[in-house]
Write a structure and sequence with these properties.
The complex is a heterodimer of chains A (88) and B (689). Chain A is mainly α and 88 residues long. Chain A has 3 helices and 2 strands; from the N terminus they run ααββα.
Chain lengths: 88, 689
């Protein structure tokens, strides 16, 4: 099995996408927690912002990250011809 | 394959729509039965036995003797349904019953579990699920064995998988026992075995195939059961049936109420009484050994005095009882007084502000609280991405793309419950702070008395300062009460309480199923088939697996009957162990070709070793069990977050040792390429048979 440049490109795109999404995940989680006390000063529909993020906002970000990854990777699969085809 | 994947999915949608309709009809019939005067106890029985019967039915229909069906449900579970099954597999008794209660009791700090138990799926989706699916064998040790070569790594994987799954399953069976005993009046021990029968009939007959289809059914029950009471409560308080969107305003009102209650004179009086009690107990402890005789004499004198004063029989009896129950030795007295002191001093402070992050008296205390929040989030996330019973589920989808989509559905279905739990906690708190606090003892709502008589640790309201009014400081609430009693707090018919019990049972059973299967598979597939007897026929392999399942279940039930302490800690410990042992080896095996066999061996050993060392030396129950010497907590981090040390140690060890040992051979390099691409021309084939 020999990897072509096309395959290597695919893998690098995957790595870049994964890295970007992990950075977003890190911000939505650990940066938000780190600054929770100052963020609590900001109010959003009654919630202090840090409470809202930990209880709901970050969770929505997580769901979005995973959904985006699945869609984007599907298009990379097709673009680079490594998709699995129709499952009968 | 007889039917195409597409029509199979269509068929499943039809079945489960019918099923959901049938379940709703079942609830409606029971509601009518309640109106006609069927006693509550029978409604409870109906819910528990009919749902267990249903799961058993699915188990029997899905019985199988084919290896791929037994271990990975034939690899044809569509993304949506695998998502629901993962959701049920994931959400345990701790999530369903315990989560909202933890949030009620700890406010912002409890949100660490909400974040950790959802954010971990980002790691599963991005770093593991698609690659494991492409690898496509049966268990997690399978991957470690193939990637790093040799039986040592595989054995370590087996040990780690069994260690964390077993710790976790004990917590689940405990939950099953509590629910069955509370809603049917059966004894705890019997409740455990009734529930166990429900678990076994399903996984025993059909392995992963039966477990998958039962879990989908269980997810539907548990999510319906969780939502109905919360939506009702939300309509009651805000007029809007979407609690998750509107509880911000209720949270504001809770915060205002906290301020009032902090400065209320009645509250302060009660807190002062507790402070006095704590001090009195402390004085008695300090006065030992002299105080022992003095206290005993005082009690005898009181009995004499009452008798000479011709006091009522009740008063004399009470005094005599106190004298009779007085500890026999000064040591016993010390233990009793220390317990009294602990109980009282826990109730001397004002209410914890619900919405404030990291409350603490000074900067240092707040920093430690924040660090522990981060620790829990970290360990729950990395643990999620390493727990074998969850990762195994992504072997069951038909393709890599479906595996990716399936993680999305998994988190979506989990999210539905987890973003509701904080709303439920706030709504329930508002009810307690406004309806119960400030009311007269003579006019307490009926659910208060009902739950007080069931279990004093769940709810206990006593008029401490004898003013006839309920103060917040006079209420003791156990976390589990919140979900179990919400239907009654909201004034819903009993049938909804039964539904909630059925939901809790579904949550506990489905997780226990997945875990038992993981343990049995690790033993039968990895240990027996791969290492002891590679020539075993499929029928023998499945039979061995079934008997192991039975054996493991019985051992787990036995350990559970010993009541080994705090459920939430057990669950947390399982996550820390999984994260430390498995996460570094799995992820580096995929993303770093240079990771070598000896690197993995050292990394798994060091990660798990550090994690266990820390827990065994800092968690009081473990210190007692193993007789270890306690150590100072590192950076003040709680034992539940031991994985925060284990994971980095594991990663660094794999990195260093891999660079010091020879690079993996060409075959391993090819395996890594193989898992990285969903489809590769001239590819090797690693699918398990």
């Amino acid at each position: 099995m020999q990897l072509t440049q096309n395959h290597i490109d695919y893998w690098h795109k995957n790595l870049r996408l994964t890295a970007i999404l992990l950075v977003i995940w890190f911000i939505a989680t650990f940066v938000v927690i780190w600054f929770a006390i100052p963020l609590a000063e900001i109010k959003m529909f009654g919630w202090p912002l840090s409470f809202y993020m930990a209880a709901q906002g970050s969770l929505i970000v997580y769901v979005a990250i995973i959904g985006f990854y699945a869609l984007k990777m599907r298009s990379y699969d097709n673009e680079h011809g490594v998709h699995e085809g129709e499952i009968e | 394959m007889a039917v195409s994947q597409k029509s199979f999915t269509q068929q499943l949608k039809k079945y489960y729509t019918f099923y959901t309709g049938g379940f709703v009809a079942f609830v409606v019939i029971l509601a009518i039965a309640e109106k006609m005067g069927v006693p509550n106890k029978w409604l409870g029985y109906c819910f528990l036995f009919f749902t267990i019967l249903l799961y058993a039915g699915i188990g029997i229909m899905s019985r199988t003797l084919e290896v791929a069906e037994y271990y990975v449900a034939g690899r044809r579970v569509p993304a949506l349904f695998n998502g629901m099954a993962t959701g049920a597999d994931w959400m345990s008794a701790a999530s369903f019953i315990g989560m909202a209660g933890t949030l009620y009791l700890t406010g912002f700090q409890g949100l660490s579990f909400i974040m950790g138990w959802t954010g971990g799926y980002v790691l599963v989706a991005l770093l593991l699920a698609p690659y494991l699916r492409k690898f496509g064998q049966f268990t997690i040790p399978d991957f470690l064995g193939a990637r790093y070569g040799g039986n040592i790594v595989r054995s370590m994987g087996v040990i780690a998988a069994i260690l964390c799954s077993f710790t976790y399953v004990v917590a689940q069976i405990y939950g099953v026992g509590i629910i069955t005993s509370r809603f049917t009046g059966l004894e705890f021990g019997i409740g455990v075995f009734v529930g166990l029968a429900g678990i076994l009939v399903c996984s025993f007959l059909g392995g992963m195939k039966a477990v998958t289809w039962t879990q989908v059914a269980q997810y539907i029950i548990l999510i319906v059961a969780y939502m109905i009471p919360v939506v009702w409560l939300s309509v009651k308080h805000t007029g809007i049936p979407i609690p998750q969107m509107v509880y911000g305003t209720v949270l504001e009102r809770v915060t205002e109420r906290e301020k009032v209650l902090t400065n209320d004179p009645g509250e302060k009086a009660v807190r002062q009484i507790f402070a006095d009690r704590a001090k009195a107990a402390d004085d008695k402890i300090k006065g030992l050994p002299g105080s022992y005789q003095a206290e005993k004499d005082a009690l005898s004198k009181k009995v004499e005095d009452l008798k000479t004063a011709a006091a009522s029989k009740i008063e004399v009896d009470a005094a005599e009882k106190a004298l009779k129950e007085f500890p026999a030795t000064p040591d016993a007295a010390k233990a009793k007084w220390a317990a009294e002191k602990g109980a009282a001093s826990g109730r001397t402070g004002p209410p914890q502000p619900h919405a404030t992050p990291f409350p603490g008296k000074d900067e240092a205390a707040r920093d430690t609280t924040r660090l522990n929040f981060i620790g829990v989030v970290f360990c729950m996330m990395f643990g999620t991405a390493a727990l074998p019973h969850i990762l195994m589920r992504y072997y069951t989808t038909p393709s890599v793309q479906e595996a990716r989509v399936s993680v999305f559905w998994s988190l979506f279905f989990i999210f539905l419950l987890y973003f509701t739990a904080p709303a439920l906690a706030v709504l329930a708190k508002f009810d307690v702070y406004t309806l119960v606090v400030g009311s007269k003892f003579a006019e307490l709502p009926t659910w208060v008395n009902a739950w007080q008589s069931v279990d004093k640790t769940l709810l206990n309201i006593t008029d401490i300062n004898k003013d006839g009014i309920v103060q917040l400081a006079e209420i003791v609430i156990g976390g589990d009460l919140i979900v179990l009693a919400t239907p009654e707090i909201a004034g819903l018919p009993y049938v909804i309480s039964g539904l909630v019990a059925a939901g809790g049972l579904a949550a506990a059973l489905s997780t226990a199923d997945g875990l038992l299967l993981t343990i049995a598979n690790a033993l039968s597939h990895d240990l027996y088939y791969k290492m002891i007897n590679p020539n075993a026929s499929p029928a023998v392999r499945i039979t061995v697996s079934k008997f192991l399942l039975l054996g493991v279940a019985i051992i787990a039930a036995y350990v559970t009957s010993l009541k080994p302490g705090n459920i939430l800690f057990l669950v947390g410990a399982a996550f820390s162990m999984a994260a430390s042992a498995l996460f570094p080896a799995l992820v580096m095996g995929i993303f770093w070709k240079r990771a070598s066999k000896w690197g993995a061996i050292a990394g798994i050993g060091a990660g798990l070793g550090v994690c266990l060392y820390y827990m065994v030396h800092t968690y009081p129950t473990f210190i007692q069990w193993f007789g270890t010497t306690p150590i100072q907590k590192w950076f003040g981090l709680d034992p539940i977050s031991a994985g925060m040390f284990g994971v980095p140690v594991g990663i660094v060890t794999i990195f260093v040792v891999s660079l010091l040992t020879p690079a993996p051979d060409k075959e391993v390099q090819e395996l890594v390429d193989h898992v990285r691409y969903p489809n590769l021309a001239g590819d090797i084939d690693t699918r398990g048979t």
